[in-house]
Design a protein that fits this description.
about 500 residues, alpha+beta, Glutamine Phosphoribosylpyrophosphate, subunit 1, domain 1, Rossmann fold, 7-stranded antiparallel β-sheet, 6-stranded antiparallel β-sheet, 25 strands, about 25% strand, transferase, magnesium, purine biosynthesis
Length: about 500
């Protein structure tokens, strides 16, 4: 690899810092961000810190917290993990009972502090902070329109488009201005807005991105996943409904309103398959239990005689346990993830990059040597990761490697807040299952059917796709999208 090409792979301070973590070894899909909010608790900043820590899997590039106490408006943001961005000193400056926080993973634009959230704005109504998870696929058109009218944008963020719409609203009441702005945008989102004395939570009319409300004492909590409530000692109250707008202030408490009726309900299926933590619940369905059912269904659809079942850590472990329970084949930890690689200044050569999978993943030779192995994974994106892991198992002595995927073939890009390659880079969009099997060097390959997936998740069969977005599998998008919609995201 030439020095010029090598340099393009590393533009931040660390080799695996910034966009895509510069990690070509693992072509997993990535969630873009997570949000956490506290209203009415004296330890709002500290609670947000622990809440964001629980949501760290949703974004590792930057983190931020903004706190309001009725008169003051303070915030701190930084690049890196939550534990790297915050310490006792900067958390000590964030005093107040209301806060919103954000962890971010970018898909487009530069990896820089200006794009870290919450984004902070000043307008005629005072200070405004916004944090969001998702993607506004018509933000580009609105931005062009606003720029033609004189607006000047400071970031490459879709979120800033919403701030400009709020600032231009004729409504002085922030809730009415937010409603007006949300009626202009299209896409997937979970928004938290914070002023000096109010907090507003809103979820897109399709409910594409997860968003939940909890309680802690007399205070209210909001998060992308319920696991964040457990981290702070809070309790789950309910999901924020699609199209719902919740307004909280000290005078009126919680006011339940909406800016849109529920449209075709379409919670992202990949949240259940891969993104959410196993201890989280989405729409009152536990993620670990749903993944175990996927594994069981996968076994019913694609049994193969083998000696051991193993899952690719971490998101595939639950499905692997389900597959093993259904088939009676022993589940073993055939693959071990190294959790302490951290970030490194060292930029490896191409040869070391090819071997680098062993830095993050190891096969347990004594478990797989001489064995027929069923390897469970949650998805295949480009196929490069699957090939490396199959070869890792073969090098450790596995006599056969049968790959089972607990989702349908991933054929289409996502425009709703997930970082995905272009369609031409998705191996399932270009190759048949048999061609993919050969490409990843597996003895056999089977994907879970869409029907099996939806039944395994367990939502009632009364809505289209049981109320899930399955566009990445079937190209049926719940909203209007264009290929240009993939450029940028609400977190960029």
């Amino acid at each position: 690899m030439s020095d010029e090409v090598t340099q393009q792979l590393w533009t931040g301070r660390f080799y695996n810092d910034g966009i895509n973590s510069h990690d070509g070894l693992f072509d997993k899909l990535r969630e873009e961000c997570g949000v956490f909010g506290v209203f009415g608790h004296s330890e709002a900043a500290n609670l947000s810190y622990y809440g964001l820590h629980a949501l760290q899997h949703r974004g590792q590039e930057s983190a931020g917290i903004c706190v309001a106490n009725g008169t003051d408006f303070n915030y701190h943001r930084g690049m890196g993990l939550v534990k790297e961005v915050f310490n006792n000193d900067n958390l000590g400056t964030l005093t107040g009972s209301n806060s919103i926080g954000h962890v971010r993973y970018s898909t487009a634009g530069e990896s820089k502090l200006a794009n870290a959230q919450p984004l902070i704005f000043k307008y005629r109504g005072g200070d405004l902070a916004i944090a969001t998870n998702g993607n506004l696929h018509n933000a580009g058109d609105i931005k062009k329109e606003l720029e033609a009218q004189g607006s000047i944008f400071q970031t490459t963020s879709d979120t800033e488009v919403v701030a400009h719409l709020i600032a231009r609203s004729k409504h002085d009441d922030i809730a009415l201005a937010v409603k007006e702005a949300l009626l202009r945008v299209e896409g997937a989102y979970a928004f938290l807005f914070l002023t000096r004395d109010k907090m507003i939570a809103a979820r897109d009319p399709h409910g594409l991105r997860p968003f939940v409300m909890g309680r802690l004492g007399n205070g209210y909590l909001f998060a992308s996943e319920t696991c964040a409530f457990d981290a702070v000692g809070g309790t789950y109250y309910r999901d924020v409904e699609p199209g719902e707008l919740l307004v909280l202030d000290n005078k009126n408490g919680l006011v339940e309103d909406r800016f849109s009726p529920i449209r075709q309900r379409a919670i992202c299926a990949m949240e259940y398959i891969y993104f959410a933590r196993p201890d989280s619940d989405i729409d009152a369905i536990n993620i670990h239990s749903a993944r175990k059912r996927m594994g069981r269904q996968l076994a019913l659809e694609s049994f193969v005689d083998a000696d051991v079942v193993t899952g690719v850590p971490d998101s595939s472990i639950s499905a692997a346990i389900g597959y093993a329970e259904q088939t009676g084949i022993p589940y073993e930890l055939g693959l071990i993830k190294n959790r302490y690689t951290g970030r490194t200044f060292i930029q490896p050569s191409q040869e070391l990059r090819e071997q680098g999978v062993k830095m993050k993943l190891s096969a347990v030779r004594s478990i797989v040597a001489g064995k027929r192995v069923v390897m469970i994974d949650d998805s295949i994106v480009r196929g490069t990761t699957s090939l490396r892991i199959v070869n890792l198992l073969r090098e450790a002595g596995a006599t056969e490697v049968h790959v089972r995927i607990s989702s349908p073939p991933f054929k289409n890009p996502c425009f709703y807040g997930i970082d995905t390659p272009d369609r031409k880079e998705l191996i399932a969009a270009q190759k048949s299952i048999e061609e993919i099997r050969r490409a990843i060097n597996a003895d056999s390959l089977h994907f879970l059917s869409k029907e099996g997936l939806l039944a395994s998740i367990g939502r009632p069969n009364v809505e289209l796709n049981r109320g899930h977005c399955t566009a990445c599998f079937d190209n049926s998008y719940p909203t209007r999208v264009t290929e240009e919609s993939s450029i940028g995201c609400g977190c960029d």
